Every structure is written in C-alpha cells, then in structure tokens.
User: Fold this.
Amino acid sequence: MTNPASSGTGGAVRFGALLLAMPLLLWLFLLVILPHVDLLLVSLRERISYGKYEFSLINYTEFFVEPLYWNTYVRTAVMSIMATVLTLLIGFPVSYYIAKVMRGKGKNVLFLLCLIPFWVSELVRTFGWMILLRESGVISNFLQWAGIADGPVEMLYNDATIMVGLVYTSMLFMVVPLVSVLDSLDDSLIEAGYDLGGNAFTVTRDIVIPHAMPGIASGCIVVFMLTLGNYLTPNLLGGKDSLWFTEQIYTQFITRFNWESGSAFGFLLLVLSSMIVWIGLKLSRQTLSETVS
Amino acid sequence: MADQFDLECRDVVKKFDAFTAVDSISLTIPKGSFFSILGPSGCGKTTLLRMLAGFQAPTSGDILIKGSSVLGVPPNRRPVNMVFQHLALFPMMNVSENVAYGLKRRGADRATIEKKVSDTLARVGLPDSGPKQISQLSGGQKQRIAIARCLVLEPAVLLLDEPLGALDLKLREHMKVELKQLQHEIGTTFVYITHDQSEALVMSDQVAVMNAGRFEQVGAPQDLYYNPHTAFVAGFVGESNLWKGTVGMTHDDHIVINLPTGGAVLASRKTHPTLAEGQPVDVFVRPEAIAIDGQGKTDNAIAAKVDNVLFNGAASSVQVRDKATGHEMTVALPQTGAFANLKSGDLVNLTWGAEQTRCFVAAQNQEATA
Assistant:
C-alpha cells in the first residue's frame, strides 16, 4: 500500500499517525485485548492444589455437562433475542412517528422524551419499576383500592417483568439509530410509493424497511448486546429465579471464587453474542461496516 | 360532456391557516395535451400539483379526472401518476423492479409485468437497462426511468414536478425536446410544472402562468408571448424592457406615455382602448421589437449609447442607455450579424412601432412587475 513517490516522507507520516492512534491502541490493548487474553488463559487451567495449576478444558466441559449452566445460557440468548425483537417492534413505529410524521418543535420534544429516562442511572430506573410493581407497590395498591384485586398482587419476579424492564432500558438505543436512518429517507420516496398504488403496508415493506435496514441492524446489535450482558435489570426485576447468564458469571467469580470457571463462562458469552450477531447480519444481508457507518 | 377533458379543476382553493396558496383555480385540460403551469417559486404551483396527485386536499372546490370527482380519493387510487422533482426512484430496487413496482401493487401476473416492463423500457429508449442499479444511471436515464415507471401504469394524466430542474443545462435542453416527442408519441396528457419559461414555451400546447395562487393567463405559448394579458405575464414570459409612466395625451391612434425621467413612449390606441389620461402604467417592449438604425416604423425613436455587447450567437443583445433619460434597455441584435462590430460607447438610433408597446395599468403592489 505504500506509495513509492512519497516514501521519503512516508516514515514520518506513519510515525505521526501512530502517535495520533496511540491512545486508541493503548486503550484497545490494555483494556480489551490484554484482559481477554488473560481471561482465556485463566479459563484454560485447572486448580490442582493451592497455587498449582494445570492446562485443562474442564471448565468448558463442566458447562456442557451441567444442565443448569447450559439452560441458563440458552434461556439468556432466547430472552435477549425476544427483548430485541420487542424493542424493534415498539421502537420502529415510535421512530417513524418522530422522524416522518412530526414536524418542527414537536419532533424535538418527542425525541427528548425518549431521552429523559436516561438522565438517571439504570439502577434508579429499575427501582422505579420495583416501586410500581411490587406487592406493596403503587399498582397493587391501586388494584386493591379499585376493588379489582382482593389481596396484594406481586408483579415482580417473573419473566414478563424482566422483559418489560429490558425493553424499557433498551428503547433509546433502538430509537436513536432508527430516527436518524428514517430522517434520511426522502419523503418523496414514500409519496412515490403511494402514488404508484402502494398502501401503508406495502410502502413500509418495500420502501421504508429496506431503507431503514442499516439502522434496524445497528439498533438490534446494540440492544441485543446490552441485553445479553445486562446484570442489573434481570437480577432486580427477576429476583433469584431470573437465571441470567451474567448472574452465573458473577456467582462464579464472587460467590464461589472460581475464577477459572467464571472466565470460561465469560468467554462462552462472548462467543454466543458474536455468533448471534453474525447470524443476524447474515440473515438481514447487512455488513458490520455498513451498519456502524 | 366533461368526458373530453382528462382533468378539470373547479374553483380549487387551498389555504394553509391564513395563507392562501392556491386561490380559486379553474382549469380544463383536453385529452392528450401537454399542459404547463409556469410560475415563480412559491406561487402555489407545487401545491396545485400535489392536490391533483392527491397528497393534499383542497380547502374548497372540486377536482375531476376523466369526468368524475376524485375528492377524497387517496393517491394510490387515482388514475394519475407523478414524476417527482428529484425523481424519487427507489434506490433499493433495480431499474426493472422500479418500473414493475406499480404493476405489482395492482396484482398483475408475472408474465404481464415482465412484458409491460420491457415494452415500457424500450419505449423510453433504455431496453437493456432492466438489471441496472439506479446509481448506475446517468441523470437523463434516471429521468426516463422515472417517466417509464409512471407510464407503465397507463395513467389518465401524468404529473411532472419540475423534473428537469436537477439536470445540467445541455441535458435539460435535450430532455425538453425528448419529453415533447415522448408525449406526442404516447398521447398521454401531461401536466408539467416549472419555473423555467423556456421549458414551458417549448414543450407545451397550453401554458398557464401562475402568480400568487392565481392563474394570470392561460393560453398557447405564442399567445402568452405576443399577447400578454397582464403586466406579470409580460414581465415573466420572455425578456422585456420596462418603464413606469403615466398616460398622457391621447391622439387618434396613439397614446403618449409620459415617463418620470422626462421622455415619452408612444403606444397604439387600438391595442389599449381602455387607457385613460393620468393612469399610472407599466410599459413593456420586447428587445427584438426594437430596430437599431433601422427603417421600419419610427413611432418611437431614441438615441442611445451602447453600454455592453452581450454576444451569445443567435441570441446576442446589447445593453444600451437612453441618452436623454438615462434609462437602461436591452436590444436584441439581428441574427444576420449586421451589427457584429458594435462596441460599447457607440451611438445608435433605436426605433419601434407604437403597436409593439404594451401598457398595463400599474397594480397596487408594484413589485409584481419587477
């Protein structure tokens, strides 16, 4: 790739570029690559006795042998995919409304309304849900006061609640890329679609969605990864039975102090998310570079 | 009775809050004609076209296509199709998918679609472009595909919203001729909106000049050019020299228009029977109506000095300044090349007949004639 004509200054230019890229390279190396290499090495050893380790695949075989781990893994993946799909289904009409239907000031106000919940931390937001949904919470009390329920109603600690929390937490990350990609869709394309005989369904299917595909893909990737790696929401809203894979990793590291097993699980989660994103991109015929640009 | 018209508007009004974009427009467009709506930007022509297409509903009035009202009929059910200003070809589909789009929406079967698409592509002169992507087409080709996409549906009326605006000058000149030919061959009624008078004049059977939401004049291009009914039409269609003056003495067959700068212009009484003394008027004279050092009629004669020679081949002209009043004028040079040696500073005698002068009673808002 070197240009022979500029080879004299090429070295200097390359050194400058390297210097500029240094913070990024350092960040990548120290905070991403190095920990992962270490994690990989830790996951591939077995503790024989105090301070003695040996190379072994036992941490991985344990995962496949123990059905609890395996089930949690699959369940986390399925729930995350469902949460992503739900977020897309709810986020798409919202984004379309913000980008294409609203005009002027209302557009910014609506967009801001999507953003406002994110001014407080995820923890506070999740506690907000708990105040609403718990046995002694707002909704339970209201149902009793209205005479609809006889006793306290517990709405926490089930899968539906986890799903609500995950979708709520992820919504912004779906809406932002969708609004920006839908904003870039020329109104006259939609009008042309109608003018040539299309209806709302066919125009959406043939024109709006193909145009929005990069935004859909990038929104889905971000939401899926955030959901898969989420710890707080499933833990607080789902309680002990939430069976989220990140909780397993936490347990291995913190409760059982089994770093070898925890590292192996961490790697398996990485493999899982990479694989599902890759399959998703293949199915939607998008490329990663198209999606992030 | 109404069947002979493909398109008819009756007192169509469109108001946006207090602003009236389209103000009681009535028009009838006979079958198979090329009808242009010419006006400056912001005159309401796009709003009118969008009402015809069904994207906007008129505040009052009626729109009829082939004799039946289409009020309340959504765009996808109207027998009209539109070529958008920026063409709005679907970038996510290739050329033949673009053309096939409308047929698919109608539920035509695959064989019919294929046949019609290839027929239509052949008709617009791009028979082999079906598998191409939209981004691979040149500006003129995109233009033709956008038209093909509409024509394949055999609309009663084809609406065109300044589709040549995005093309460069040379291609635009070429497409003008091509569009007219195409319309002539297929015989579909075209409604074409533009702010470019030469597009309207060259292509159309009928032109409606629109200003501030109203039609100023509807007529054949020649009519508009030689017989403008209002000052706006005289100023907007073609080049004109403009004076502001007041009607002075009237003779048997001449009217004297006094100019505030001291000079006077003669107009024919016959063409302006209603002008009365003291009325403020705008006076228009076409650059090509003025003869340089000529014989012809000499009702008006001005001695002038050449300021600038604007050489442009057959469309060359000179900018001159009236020696007496200092008024700037543009005079077309004869195409014989007789005054090829004219240069700035030369003195010339300008003459024109009184019947070449057009006067219009000055409107309340003076800027309309600028």
Remarks:
- Confidence is low (pLDDT under 50) at residues 1-6 of chain A.
- Chain A touches chain B through 17 residues (CB under 8 Å).
